[in-house]
Amino acid sequence: MMPNNKSSETKSGLRQTLGRPSTRYSVAFLIVSGIALGVVLWGGFNWAMELTNTETFCISCHEMRNNVYEEYTQTAHYNNSSGVRATCPDCHVPKEWHYKVVRKIRASNELYHKALGSINTREKFEAKRLELAQHVWDSMKATDSRECRNCHEFGSMDLTAQGRRAVEQHEKTAKEGKTCIDCHKGIAHSLPDLHDVDPSAVVGESRATD
Amino acid sequence: MKETSPYLLLIVILGIAMQSAAQSGLDSLRRQPIDADSIAVDQKKWQPDRDPIPRDYVQQPPLVPHSIEGYEVNLKSNKCLTCHSWANYKEAGATKISQTHFRDRELSVRANVAGTRYFCTQCHVPQVNARPLVENQFEPVDAIKQR
Question: What is the CATH number of the domain that holds B147?
């Protein structure tokens, strides 16, 4: 009985210490050190989060480097006439802080599957590609392609400078309330198997039953 | 008298022929001596989007009037058909693929585009801003000439 009593006493002792007003430090010291600590901790938190927001970090995992990154290096978002490059987080991580934090928390699921090895071979990745692509398409649809619009804003587009196809489609898009991802799929990574999405755009019948 | 070796004779004749060829200055499309690097070709640009290009002869596969940079065609997807298939052409405002493309090599009509007609760029090609290498006076027959 004695040890239990003792531990509960120390606990309440700690609580008392924390709850007791400071008698040693001035209010000014507490405020200044509080602010300083706040800046350091907040900065450190954001610094760590930004570290996870770099291409180097993304492709430090071979699933990313050997599959989606490899495909992306062949596309206009990697290499183009103007020399502007959009890296992984530009398209896949929101810029606004609260959306970014939510995305980062969701990414813990990706860590979980990294540990499970869900897509650790090319074959496993290809088998899951449609599902994974669908997730990205769905979230872009839900946010009205927010990450595309960080660079490609309709209001800043000079339709007269665009090609014939683009003008027609973009004018229609504005009227029908469509969003970028409705048409611009498979622009930075290869398309998944379309047999179950758009059988008219692929040869043969669904191979899912094979 | 010793006989001249036929091989020696051949070599001599070849040598004379090669020398005269070099003197007359053979002009090839490559336009560089055989031991020199090729001249870099001009960078060509895809022609900007335009209206469908009229055919120059009957049965000509229509040309692609836009860039197809980065379009993939493989067993999992066909980027061209995401606009040009019968299911998608109206929405995309594109030309639909011909009915003939559903017929396989046994001439039976398939439910989807035939494998023999699947690889679009085997016949349908985009155009670049390039001058023809040789002059060409080809004219379409009157029946399909644009008026």
Answer: 1.10.1130.10
The dihedrals phi and psi of A33, each to the nearest 5 degrees, come to -70, -35
Q: How many other C-beta atoms can be found within 10 angstroms of the C-beta atom of residue B72? A: 15
Searching chain B, which residue's CA lies closest to the CA of residue A77? Answer: B70
Residue with tokens 């002059």: B135
The alpha-carbon gap from A82 to the nearest alpha carbon of chain B, in Å, equals 15
**Mean pLDDT (chain A, rounded):** 89
DSSP readout, chain B? Answer: -PPPPHHHHHHHHHHHHHHHHHHHT---SS-S-TTSPPPPPPPP-BPPP-SPPPPSSTTPPPPB-S--TT--BSSS-BTTHHHHSTTTHHHHT-PPPPGGGGB-TTSPBPSS--GGG--GGGT--B-BS---SS-------GGG---
Report the predicted TM-score, pTM, of the whole model to 2 decimal places. Answer: 0.78
Range of the structural domain that residue A163 is part of: 153-183
Average pLDDT of the residues in B90-115:
93
Which A residues 155-174 touch B at CB under 8 Å? Answer: 163-166, 168-169, 172
Min distance A165 CA to chain B CA atoms (Å): 7
Q: Is residue A40 part of a domain?
A: yes
B19, part of any domain: no
- Measured CA to CA, the distance from residue A66 to residue A89 in angstroms comes to 17
Q: What is the pLDDT of residues B34-86, one digit of tens each?
A: 888 888 878 888 988 999 999 999 899 999 999 998 899 999 999 999 999 99
Let me know whether A75 and A122 are in one domain.
Answer: yes
